[in-house]
Amino acid sequence: MPKVLVLAATGFEPMELVNPTDLLRRAGADVKVAAVGTQGLQVDAAHGVKIVADVKFDAVKNETFDLIIAPGGMPGTKNLAANHDVVEFIKRHDKAGKLVGAICAAPGFVLAQACGIMKGRKGCGYPGCDNAIAETGGELTTDAVTRDGNVITSRGPGTSQQFGLALIEALISKEKAHDVAKGAILA
């Protein structure tokens, strides 16, 4: 069973965490949501939404996952980018060829600026937050979801279901992504 870690910092965009997490769990992945920079497991998202994470990031930061996901939203994305352990965690997974997913502001602020892993890669993100992809040597696309090797990026809340399905396709199979989409009435 593939292991997935979703990074949840205060101020994340709820749709960008919940949709991919739900779809990946439907696909049979072992998905853990990790609270980053909080005292406990509750993480306050944008728009007054609160979630309860499965684990604290500090408890799993030395583990290796098949896929890690950085949701967007403000100030959640800035909180991820400012966390040294998160940045090193993402860089380590990228270097090992593990799947790295980011959506909305996270491709620009976290993957490109903080981690420096978008150079020479194609990626997309939320308009106005995605310029860092090109500024750090990457190629900016306007696709709903862009995959370049082990890095998968997406535009924002409205593309979060497509993002989740693309993650399933990359992590498990195209057939599993289709089955999950059909079951969720997304196809």
TrEMBL record:
<dbReference type="InterPro" id="IPR002818">
    <property type="entry name" value="DJ-1/PfpI"/>
</dbReference>
<dbReference type="InterPro" id="IPR029062">
    <property type="entry name" value="Class_I_gatase-like"/>
</dbReference>
<protein>
    <submittedName>
        <fullName>DJ-1 family protein</fullName>
    </submittedName>
</protein>
<dbReference type="GO" id="GO:0005737">
    <property type="term" value="C:cytoplasm"/>
</dbReference>
<dbReference type="GO" id="GO:1903189">
    <property type="term" value="P:glyoxal metabolic process"/>
</dbReference>
<dbReference type="Pfam" id="PF01965">
    <property type="entry name" value="DJ-1_PfpI"/>
</dbReference>
<feature type="domain" description="DJ-1/PfpI">
    <location>
        <begin position="3"/>
        <end position="169"/>
    </location>
</feature>
<dbReference type="InterPro" id="IPR006287">
    <property type="entry name" value="DJ-1"/>
</dbReference>
<dbReference type="InterPro" id="IPR050325">
    <property type="entry name" value="Prot/Nucl_acid_deglycase"/>
</dbReference>
